[in-house]
Design goal:
234 residues, alpha+beta, 2 helices, 11 strands
Amino acid sequence: MKLSNLKVSVMAFVMVLPVMLSAQSPTSSTGTVQQTYKLDEQTKKKTTPVGRRIELTPVYGYSLNGSVNLYRANFKMENAEHYGGILSVEVMPGVLGEFSYTRSNTTARFEDFVAGESNYYDMSIDYFQLGGVKELKKGPVVPFGMVSLGATWFNMKDESDHVSFSAALGGGLKFFFSDRIGIRMQGRLLLPMYFSGGGLFLGIGSGGPSGGVSISTGVLAVQGDFSGGLIFRF
């Protein structure tokens, strides 16, 4: 009787043991602990606000400074290196507002065709531009296009300087090594402009009174630059 009772007790213990182990294991049955943790983690990710992207890029490159053709003379600005910086702020996904500044220290030659004389000047060309950048795709390699408006300062060291309204068109590529660091390479077409005159007109015809404003403008010199720099993203 004692031996049979022992066998029955052992068999009962063996049958009950898996039930006891499954009750103690948090990963068995429904896995409630892990599911709750994953749900909390996903909720945190969804509710975490995404910060506005800011990029700061010091740049260095080469400027094609062009020339100004006059009636009987030519003002040639020598090509030279330039340096500066770009501040970009994301305004919507894939679109950034951007302020840029570049400075090119160069020399200029004024050649008078009639008198047969040439004079040389030290000068700097400063571009202040405000515009937008459109990124064409996402990923570690990002092509982009850009357009901007602003001012150009032709700073003659020993003569009077000149400030001109200007526009810029360009594009390039960004290469990102990580979420914070990348390289930017770009080219721009630069168009400093001049205003030769304007007017206001008023008239009365069969259709009634009419009016308007006219402004005459042109491109002072066709310029361009190529540059690159290290992107710091915040």
